[in-house]
Amino acid sequence: MASFKPTKIPVYPKLGEKVTQDTLYWKNYKAPVQIKEYGAVSSIDFSPVAPHNFAVTAFTRIHVYGPFSKEPVKSFTKFKDTAYCGRFRSDGQLLVAGCEDSKVRLFDVDGKVALRMFKGHTKAVHVTDFTSDRYHIITGSDDYTCRLWDIPNAAELSVYQEHKDYIRCGVTSKLNKDLFITGSYDHTVKLFDVRTDKSVMMMEHGQPVESLLLYPSEGLLVSAGGRCVKVWDLLKGGQPLVSLKNHHKTVTSLCLSSCGQRLLTASLDRHVKVYNTTTYKVVHNFDYAASILSVALAPDDASIVVGMTNGILSVKHRKNPEDSKVAQKRRPTYKVYVKGKNYVPKQDDFLVSKPVRQHLAQYDKQLKKFNVSLALDAALQKWTRHRKPEIPVAVVKELDRRGTLKNALAGRDEKAVSQILNFLIGNLVDPRFTPILVKAAEIMLDIYQPIIGQSPVVDRQLLRLQDLVERELDYQLELMEVLGMLDTMFASCLPKKELPYAGLSRSNGVTEGEKGVLTPLVQAT
Predict the structure, then answer these.
(1) pTM over 0.70, yes/no
(2) How far apart are CA 108 and CA 420, in angstroms?
(3) Residue 497 pLDDT
(4) Which residues of the chain are under the pLDDT cut of 50?
(5) Which of 13, 77, 211, 378 makes a 20 to 30 Å CA pair with 306?
(6) What is the pLDDT of residue 335?
(7) By C-alpha distance, which of 48, 54, 42, 53 is closest to 98?
(8) What are the CA-CA distances from residue 291 to residues 69, 252, 264, 274 (Å)?
(9) Is 484 helix (H, G, I), strand (E, B) or coil?
(10) What pLDDT was estimated at residue 445?
(11) 359-380: b or e for each residue (b if 16 or more CB lie within 10 Å)?
(12) Distance (Å, rounded) from C-alpha 439 to C-alpha 490?
């Protein structure tokens, strides 16, 4: 008796994403390290000096983590309410943060107690940052004001009251100590110069502004609010350059890669998208388990840190080529793998073969027992029909080859019929499966034609199937028309063949030199 041959599953070419240099670069991260914080992670900031620790602002604490530490190396807990916007100074020695209690606190990174406390705001302070000269602080609050503070004297120098709603984001210039920019829920972005008593430039974003980012050259500004990310040209008076709407929910955070040629945007839709800053097209996408409030990149893109609303801090470290070399050294040596493979059998040797046990899939087990209906049910399991539709199609093809496809499709209840129709709707117009599934669809219509009109679920699916087939036929007709047009265009572009000259002999009185001036002769048929 011949052994049972398993169903042959054809291998189709994968239609996956295009692998680019960006794909290889941004996928070169290890599995994320997840750290549980005390609350939603609202802000992440990397220290500009080595070893580039990063400050995480969550609930009433600011934790400072080392590049590879899973526990905080430093904690600031002297907040009476929710802390906001922990920021390092350019020398990495001081850290400033706002608070829900309207106070601004300045910390020494090596200490615990606040060095300065700035009082003046009347509501929560969500924006804090140092100016480029290191001696001043810019703050923005829910009291609609932004203020300039002097660090040595802990004194308030200027107050700006131009916004008409909460100020939730801001950024200072790294090239000019007198310039800073704020974004507000009044849909505006304003550029301030501390040498004047009012803003010098205003841009209308159109949505409550959640985050701001300056390019290293500071000629371009990026603002995020709602689903929209906009890029502004500051050298042309705040003229909008491009508007990006690739997220499905509010964009909450922005950051640039170390080279400045990739823009990262984080959103409540649980995605971090990477844009090419030349074309502003999405070149990569990161998915996370919860809505994202903050994102930051380490210098040289060594790690990417994401803070989420559920209090989870996700840290991905870039893979080190040396790690793979160490792993390879731990593997068994080459001689272990080739042991015995080079042995040449002799004439008097006896060969003792070990029977190889055949492992069959569930649908093949049922086919071996001639249970054709159960075999089709096994191939139409939820995971298989969604992730690997080629398996149910191969089983249908095998049943058709055996002549038992009609028996496998017959005798089913409403739920089973609906399941098969659902699979046909999803895969019938796929050119890889159409020749096989069309016959299955015809058999289904022949068998279950008497129950049409009795089941509203089956009726709706049949109407969907009919509409799908009609639209596919329309597409095919349009493609044929386009193909005919292209054939006509290609035919008109081909070079025309020249007609040959009729041969004339010297006896007719025409010399060889005169043949070149004669018109071509066409023989009558």
Answers:
(1) no
(2) 67
(3) 59
(4) 1, 501-525
(5) 77
(6) 64
(7) 42
(8) 24, 10, 15, 17
(9) helix
(10) 83
(11) eebebbebbeeeebbbbbbbbb
(12) 37
